[in-house]
Design brief:
With 200 residues, the chain is α+β, with helices and mostly antiparallel strands. It is built from four helices and eight strands, in the order E-E-E-E-E-E-H-H-E-E-H-H. It binds zinc ion (2 copies). InterPro entries: YceD.
Length: 200
């Protein structure tokens, strides 16, 4: 039987899983998995994600409740300045003992496997590896922040953005104005320049 590959995201939970009513506290950092957001708003792969909470064993699995905190890097949607903020998300996740891959590996009958496989598609279940010895929290970290991150962020709610004519930062130069009052003049000037170029 192939050994399960343990990763940076596996947490030993064999003891808490030995019988219902056990608790294991977690307070440590894990590297952010790939695929959370993008360069506009995202968590860089490998950035430290703090996981604080506990695993509680019930009859058919482990429940994790806690807070995941990740450093989010973003670019202000109005003024392009780089932002870095911590996002903290409350999570509750279920890690069932019956796991499709695990059951197949262990050679158990498929009856339970089919039921669980249907539920897994809901995306609310997270994997236990090696017959319930380890919890794999990589998908939980990814799902949590992929869902939590906004598509855009602002450096501050009233960010004034950049001057549409010259790109000056209007937060730094609130009094910034151009002599041309009507922006349509700009469009006309551009058109004129274009026509002149074509004539050459
Ligand atoms: Zn801004
Ligand atoms: Zn300007």
């Amino acid at each position: 039987m192939a050994r399960i590959q343990f990763t940076d995201w596996t947490i030993p939970v064999a003891q808490v899983g030995s019988r219902p009513g056990q608790t294991k506290e977690i307070d440590q950092e894990f590297p952010a998995p790939e695929g959370i957001g993008d360069t506009i708003v995202g968590v860089k792969p490998g950035a430290p994600v703090h996981v604080a909470g506990q695993f509680d064993s019930i009859v058919d699995g482990l429940i994790f409740t806690g807070t995941l905190t990740a450093p989010v890097d973003a670019v202000c949607a109005r003024c392009d300045v780089d932002l870095s903020r911590d996002f903290a998300e409350q999570v509750t996740a279920f890690f069932p003992y019956e796991n499709k891959g695990e059951d197949l590996a262990a050679g158990k009958d498929d009856e339970e496997t089919e039921i669980i496989a249907g539920e897994e598609e809901s995306g609310d279940l997270y994997p236990l590896l090696d017959n319930g010895s380890f919890a794999d929290i990589e998908p939980l970290i990814r799902d949590t922040f992929v869902t939590a991150l906004p598509l855009q962020m602002l450096c501050r709610p009233d960010c004034k953005g950049l001057c549409p004519q010259c790109g000056a930062d209007l937060n730094e130069e609130p009094a910034h104005v151009h002599d041309v009052v009507d922006p349509r003049f700009d469009a006309l000037a551009a058109l004129k320049a274009q026509l002149e170029q074509q004539e050459k």
